[in-house]
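= Paired protein data =
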Amino acid sequence: MDYGSDLINDAHLVAEVAHSAVGQLRKYTNDPYIVHPRAVLKLLVENVLDVSEEMACAALLHDVLEDTKLTKRFLVTRFGYTVANLVEELTEVEHRIKQPSEGGPQRRVGPVKNRKAQKIMEARRLAKVSSEAKTIKLADLCDNVYSIIAHDPNFSKVFLDEANYLLENSLWGSTSHRLFDMAEDFVKTGYMTLGKPAPFLARDAD
């Protein structure tokens, strides 16, 4: 497929404008937020044999429902149901927007929970999403682990524990063993950087 296709270029533009419109920057570096979706797409292209046009678009748009004012309805109209559904699968329940009735207000859905409970609930949800969504999530996880280890040692232990929990319980069945292994390696490296013992991962027994 053509990674410079009109649809993918449009997804890049929409993501860039949407994140910029809410003033969102990449944490720690203050780069334009679009650098993260670009990195996720790059990881997909470099590590997954067959990345569909829809997966590429969803990689670029994976945070727009969570962090911007765009709605699933807009994504369906602009990119089709496959892309919109993938982006929704990649959106945490806590951050989902309930589609408004005509003229009605948008509102968040999902009860507010403490971080640990929220992440356990999210891990259970991700275990049930499509293999394509799991693959995009692995690329997202790789980029986030790399960034947090590099810039936030105080938060790294918490995030690494959460990432490890996802790998053990949720992200089996992706379309890329290579990305799964890369995510595992990033997590293990992160623990070693912090001087912590790397946890035993189920795939270590293979």
About this structure: Strands lie at 97-98, 107-108. Confidence is low (pLDDT under 50) at residues 98-109. The radius of gyration is 17 Å. The longest helix spans residues 131-151.
